[in-house]
Amino acid sequence: MRNLRSLLPTLGILMVITGCTRPVAACSKQIPGMACIPAGEFIRGSNDFESDEKPAEKVYVSEFHMDLHEVTNKEFNECLAAGKCRGCLQTGECNYIGARYGWRYKKDDQPVSGVSWFTAREYCEFRGKRLPTEAEWEKAARGPDGNLYPWGNEPADCSRAIIQIGEGKKGIKGCFTKRLEPEWHMHTAAVMSRSPGAYGLYDMAGNVHEWVNDWYSKSYAACGEKCRGRDPKGPCDGAAVCPGHKERSVRGGSWWWTAGYARGSKRRGNVPGNMPMEHYHHFGFRCAQ
């Protein structure tokens, strides 16, 4: 009975942050700075939007932990100071944002952005962690019931996520501008500046796109068994080389993209090197364990 009573607070928290009224499995441990996503099935993908999200089906993901927020500039600089994560300095893919953007992205509590998949992986290894799989990321973003967004099914706007909300000949409009302005006036926000979503995680929609470990596939159907069942890891199980695949997956939308990109099932791919001709200044990440 004492053991049951000790679990009740944890169960209650899980019921609140997942939006569930039914009990969910308690996690075996807690890790500071990370949220625990309990083992179980969730609805992965969607039949209602893009072809690469199909089909929607149940997938089982074992218990894992994910950073509460995107890796910040301060945290990333600690990796550089330790003599790690420095390969990106030679290749120009280390927090690449371009001369026009500069200080708007550089605050300690803003997410590091403009990094390659390789840099993201190296940082997570420095912390004794790893990049999440695409299935893990989507479960963490949507919860077990396949919600459209981390907060539920209500439309995305600037009160819930850092996204683009307008575009025209004079530029784009973001969450920090009152009118259409040049793109370099847009920027990220401090992590945890919006309310948490499923499992207590912040910014799983918007702010920066987030690298995951998987190779990008044109659809879950095309991926086949590697994207189904229990703890799928995507094509070639995410191996260093995967014939027929050139892009890694990025998820979650960003300050640069509109609300549709912030959907929990929305997918896209990008070359992992994120090199000069493919630089995307809105790519960041968070780690899993």
In short:
This is Sulphatase-modifying factor protein. By secondary structure, this protein is of the alpha+beta class.
Helicity, as a percent range: 10-25%
Briefly note the CATH topology name: paralog of FGE (formylglycine-generating enzyme)
Strand content: 5-15%
Low-confidence stretches: 1-23
Short key terms for the protein model shown above:
about 290 residues; alpha+beta; paralog of FGE (formylglycine-generating enzyme); 4-stranded mixed sheet; two-stranded antiparallel sheet; about 20% helix
Give a verbal description of the structure.
With 289 residues, the protein is of the alpha+beta class. The chain has helices spanning 2-17, 73-81, 87-91, 117-126, 134-142, 220-223, and strands at residues 34-37, 40-44, 57-61, 64-67, 166-168, 171-173, 209-215, 248-251, 267-270, 283-284. It has a single domain, classed as paralog of FGE (formylglycine-generating enzyme) (Alpha-Beta Complex). The chain has a 4-stranded mixed sheet with strand order 9-8-7-10. The chain has a two-stranded antiparallel ribbon with strand order 1-4. The chain has a two-stranded antiparallel ribbon with strand order 2-3. A hairpin with a 2-residue loop joins β5 (166-168) and β6. The longest helix is centred in the N-terminal third of the chain and has 16 residues, at 2-17. The radius of gyration is 18 Å and the shape is globular. The relative contact order is 0.20. The model is unreliable at 1-23 (pLDDT under 50).
